[in-house]
């Protein structure tokens, strides 16, 4: 896997372009891996917020079930939506006031800090960087770094300006 | 095959991640006040930085514990590890549904604001840095996975446009979390924006950027936590739904058109 020139085939191997085909994922394997992630998430939450894993367990179980259900929907529903979209929608539905059990769900997931749940993903992220990604970043040079920062700033500010105008107009 | 890759080098990977997570959470959130605002450091930043430091391509000896196969598994684990986070994020929406409906028009229209990259990054790339067709791929969107797929499909990744998109993708992967943790509190410090506007702008379609952005906003305005999370979650879901199409049918044609206007010779040469 040496990538000296960023030609198409090797670049595609090192970038997550085709890793995203969720129509073919193995739901059973992902469910096992999700279990590992959930345990790490409980520890992360414990260290970060002081909430012991036993107290946070029901909330984590809810998030686990929602995630697995989202995977199922992404895999088997005839039209395509990414699993994260399904997971988001399911999580919203089970917490809308009036839905049976919504209050209980909200109370239980309250034990989990959202940032503590993101920490494991970023740790995997740092370890997952491939030689290809380091090479592309190195090869692209300082101009791309400046442009990338402007892209992020522009995307964020553009949204903030429109949102601000709309909020002022609609009160 | 799939059963073996679950364990081959996998347990070391998970154990190292667990250790990094514990260290990162022990350090916790750190805030530094500077003149123009607050700089916020989050556990996700330390976890990512430590992950890079231990990455076997940086720290060669780690290859014994994390062989290339485990690096690949780690890539899969990002997608999986972000799921409970996204689920937790979704659960913040339901209780705030009235607030979200109230902000509905702003929420929907701010999606168009993602085109803001074209107005800031494109002129800088084309006029200041004198870049060529790379500018198109680099600046038409925030260049996360779906946007990268659009460029790969249309131009191929070995085209100038592809190189630009991949450069921004790789840079975003390396520093995006840092930028999205540092930037929002500083922009909040300007005093120009409603915190709801800053919160809904966090939904750019990347889990780690979303985490960094909302994490930094919540740590400077803890009393607004519920509203910030709910608006950011709603906006992020909208970006999942619309981002690809806005990119494909609006942002990319617009960027190409602008490039032709700015560099008529280059466009004619093709």
UniProtKB/TrEMBL annotation, chain A:
Transmembrane stretches, by residue range? 27-48, 54-74, 79-99, 111-130, 142-167
Q: Please, which domain of life does this record's source organism belong to?
A: Bacteria
- Which UniProt keywords are present, listed alphabetically? Membrane, Transmembrane, Transmembrane helix
Q: What name has this protein been given in UniProt? A: DUF340 domain-containing protein
TrEMBL record, chain B:
Q: Which domain of life is it from?
A: Bacteria
Keyword annotations from UniProtKB, A to Z? Membrane, Transmembrane, Transmembrane helix
- Transmembrane segment boundaries: 12-29, 36-58, 70-91, 112-131, 166-186, 198-221, 227-254
Q: What InterPro entries does the annotation carry?
A: DUF3100 (IPR021450)
Organism (species)? Paramesorhizobium deserti
Q: Does the keyword Transmembrane helix apply?
A: yes
Q: Does the keyword Metal-binding apply?
A: no
Q: What is this protein called?
A: DUF3100 domain-containing protein
């Amino acid at each position: 896997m040496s990538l000296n020139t960023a030609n198409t085939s090797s670049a595609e191997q090192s970038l997550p372009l085709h890793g995203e085909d969720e129509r073919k994922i193995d739901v059973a394997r992902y469910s096992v891996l999700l279990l590992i992630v959930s345990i790490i998430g409980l520890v992360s939450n414990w260290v970060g917020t002081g909430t012991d894993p036993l107290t946070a367990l029901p909330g984590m179980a809810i998030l686990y079930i929602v995630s697995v259900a989202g995977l199922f929907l992404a895999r088997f529903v005839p039209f395509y939506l990414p699993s994260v979209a399904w997971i988001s929608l399911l999580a919203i539905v089970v917490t809308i006031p009036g839905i049976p059990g919504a209050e209980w769900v909200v109370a239980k997931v309250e034990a989990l800090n959202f940032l503590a749940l993101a920490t494991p993903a970023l740790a995997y992220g740092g370890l997952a960087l491939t030689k290809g990604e380091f090479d592309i970043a190195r090869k692209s040079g300082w101009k791309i770094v400046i442009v990338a920062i402007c892209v992020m700033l522009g995307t964020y500010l553009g949204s903030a300006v429109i949102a601000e105008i709309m909020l002022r107009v609609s009160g | 095959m799939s059963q073996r890759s679950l364990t081959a080098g996998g347990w070391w990977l998970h154990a190292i991640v667990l250790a990094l997570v514990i260290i990162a959470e022990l350090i916790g959130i750190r805030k530094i006040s500077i003149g123009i605002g607050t700089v916020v450091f989050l556990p996700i930043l330390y976890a990512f930085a430590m992950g890079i430091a231990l990455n076997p391509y940086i720290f060669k000896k780690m290859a014994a514990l994390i062989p290339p196969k485990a690096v690949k598994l780690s890539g899969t684990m990002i997608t999986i590890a972000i799921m409970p986070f996204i689920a937790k994020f979704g659960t913040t929406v339901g209780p705030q549904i009235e607030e979200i409906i109230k902000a509905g028009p702003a929420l929907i229209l701010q999606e168009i604001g993602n085109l803001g990259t074209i107005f800031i990054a494109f002129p800088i790339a084309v006029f200041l840095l004198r870049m060529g067709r790379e500018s198109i791929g680099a600046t038409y969107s925030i260049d996360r996975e779906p946007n990268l797929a659009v460029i790969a499909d249309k131009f191929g990744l070995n085209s100038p446009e592809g190189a630009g998109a991949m450069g921004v993708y790789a840079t975003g992967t390396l520093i995006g979390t840092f930028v999205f943790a540092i930037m929002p509190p500083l922009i909040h410090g300007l005093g120009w924006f409603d915190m709801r506007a800053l919160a809904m702008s966090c939904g750019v379609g990347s889990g780690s950027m979303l985490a960094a952005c909302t994490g930094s906003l919540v740590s400077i305005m803890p009393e607004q936590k519920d509203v910030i999370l709910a608006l950011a979650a709603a906006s992020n879901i909208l970006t999942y739904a619309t981002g690809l199409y806005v990119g494909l049918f609006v942002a990319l044609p617009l960027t190409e058109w602008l490039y032709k206007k700015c560099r008529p010779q280059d466009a004619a040469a093709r």
